[in-house]
Amino acid sequence: MKPILIFLFIISNIGIAFSQTSGNARVDALIKQQKQAKSGQFLFTVNGQKFTEKVNVIKSEKSYGIIGDLMESTRPLTILFQTFTSGKHELNSDKNVIGIHDKIYIIKGFLDLKSSGNQASGTVSGTLFEINSKGKTSPTSSGNISGTLSGLIVNQ
Question: Engineered SS bond to 22: which of 27, 87, 95, 138, CB 3.0-4.6 Å?
Answer without folding.
Answer: 27
